Amino acid sequence: MSEKNVALFLNRPRNILGFFGIWLPPASFTLLYTIYMLFILLTQYSFVLFEFIYIVEVWGDLDAVSEASFLLFTQASVCFKVTRFLIHKDKLVMLLEFMEEEVFQPQNKIHERYLITLSTRVKRLCLFFLMSACTTCTLWGMVPVVDSTAGERFFPFLIWMPVGPANSPQFELGYFYQMAAIYISAFLFIAVDSVVLSMIMFGCAELEIIMNKVEQIQKVPLSGKLKQDERDQRIRDNCELFKKCIKHHQEVIRFIDIVEDTFHANIFFQLSGSVAIICIIGLRISIVEPGSMQFISMLNYMMTMLSQLFLYCWCGNELTIRSELLRDVMYLSPWYEQSNPFRRLLWVAMERMKKPILFKAGHYIPLSRPTFVSILRSSYSYFAVLNQAQNKEK
């Protein structure tokens, strides 16, 4: 079976996840692939464990806890996402096969252009997200070099480590472990998110294709321009085309439902964690010295988290807008010149489309621009509370 749509939308995240052993295993070398995957997961889970141990040790010191907590939330989110991704590989296979079904195949150059345009758009947005995350990791790695004083060495991240930074090669080993783990985390973070975002945008592209098909419904004038048999044939063709559009729309809804059912917990965990992460990063930015490498890295990390949050809400909003626009396009078709079966189908379809397609995190929170604004407001509220508590301690 051809994988044109899968390759078009999921080529980059598939390559990244395949490189780290998280994608579907190959037909051969399955055991080695599994061992490699477990090693990658070990780097992530051990990082969370070391972070948790450190927070327990410094519990009560708001400054130290806040400095370590934002990374704990991020790493926990990565572990949660990747683990659920691995658990639901059967649904991933179903979705990949779904994307290559005949009903989703482009029928002309216009349909191909819709698919290419939206796949390119989501790829560029995810690439910006990836570059921002890698830049943040690089800046974190530079902090021990740039911000060190009097030759004192320290690790990039405040986590418990079985080795210390004072002596070599313990410092080099600890530094390499932290940077390798955080870079792997960044790539996995973006790759899993890119799979979800690309599938949502694939649904958007299919809705645009349906709108194009609806616009192909021909008028059936009552004047003598058409012979009776030509009118009857055009009416039948229009009715058949509209039936295909409705079937196509139902398949898009089914596809989006499976995507939501597969990844809704990931997105809900991410949105919930983003509130804590953003307010803690804001707190750290208000504490660290402006212009320092740590300040710049925190600022860049804030931009990364906001871009990720915006991507989810933007893609979900685009899906909802197109589902609402499809209903308008159907109503603007020359339905009044069609047969009674066509009109009945249109009535049923428009009644169904009164409820637009909403992609929800946790089957509860719709991904939309108002959700993005609401999360920012909540983050600021929690930041204000934490900032006030810290000022009281001082």
From TrEMBL:
TM ranges: 20-42, 125-146, 175-203, 267-287, 293-315
Upper taxonomic lineage: Eukaryota, Metazoa, Ecdysozoa, Arthropoda, Hexapoda
Family classification: Belongs to the insect chemoreceptor superfamily. Heteromeric odorant receptor channel (TC 1.A.69) family.
Protein name as catalogued: Odorant receptor
Subcellular location: Cell membrane
Gene Ontology MF term list: odorant binding; olfactory receptor activity
Entries under Pfam families matching the protein: 7tm_6
Keywords, ordered alphabetically: Cell membrane, Membrane, Olfaction, Receptor, Sensory transduction, Transducer, Transmembrane, Transmembrane helix
Record membrane topology: Multi-pass membrane protein
GO cellular component: plasma membrane
Predominant localisation class: membrane
Organism encoding this protein: Planotortrix excessana (greenheaded leafroller)
GO biological process: signal transduction
